[in-house]
């Protein structure tokens, strides 16, 4: 009787929908940019057959990655993936939209953005504004927010293809709560294998009910001794207010966000690395740095050198893919593909603006390499932090990347995803024998509560000659004008 009069007193819960298999989102899913919608965009140097692309993607999801064809739902207060038992025209594995342009990309519209490139002989790093590729990589109806994906029967994947006589744009959009960048790259790699005629039985799959992080979920009555994930801060209400006020003041002073494409030749990176290694050898040190350490060190030294002298600490976070670490069953890496979120960050001990200005690229690269080595040498701590994240409501807590008065930067690298090596030749139109290769990779993000991504950088791809990165910052942080900025690099 009371339940009828006061329905909120009832313990009744909504059952899962018919025809759907259900898997709850993990703590990593809901903690990692939950409100963000991501697009990975590929620019391919040929006209491709959109029907072949759509048919092979449908086949891949249906037979190998059914969770990629799922829907996102918030049921009984819990985010979950609802995976259709079968896919059909009313319940497709993805939304696939196509625009066909019977012309070359620049033939009719001179105002179309230029795809960044550089001659092979160009050996110095170069910086250009990031091109506005959104209209070619997202349909006009793509879901822009997490709320859009929570509507009934909205697939997790939205693929938009814009076909020109000389280029094809392929944009893959999904909510970050469902896929991280490496997960999307895993799908893309498997997709191109099917396109090129590989036996689908030989392509590794992800089972619909895969839950590799289940062992980190503690018992309901257990507690974790770890207070928070490494490098992130759980602030009190006053510190949160102070952080937000300082952050908003920086945005008021420098409100316009600009994004730059940075092309760093591999010969340049190798030469810088060689100099650092020779210096370490002369000092009798057995330490080393990798080319990625050098890339991060060179770039952040470049962008902070022009800043006024300051002791402001910069908290640098380096995204780290957990899939290859011995954290899972029998202390081994993941044996099967996993497209959902599987990354945390490695914190580099704070580096002041003055240190970025005064220290060499080699000294900064060593700071980064030492932080990575420290992280990998203590995987028990990584397990403990996963345990903290999976305890109670910790995943929904707001964590801050630095304390008030400091600044932060986040660096992500997709070099291991090898997006620049994806081969779409199997979708070429006609009997053309040339390889359909990726000539540029770009990324876009949107959110209901979008904030400028000052200090966020991503290595999107590498080709035979260079590493390509996109970095976001405030317009005033780049210098007085673009010519001056480019001169610094």
Automatic annotation (TrEMBL):
Domain of life: Eukaryota
Protein name: Transferase
Organism expressing this protein natively: Mycena sanguinolenta
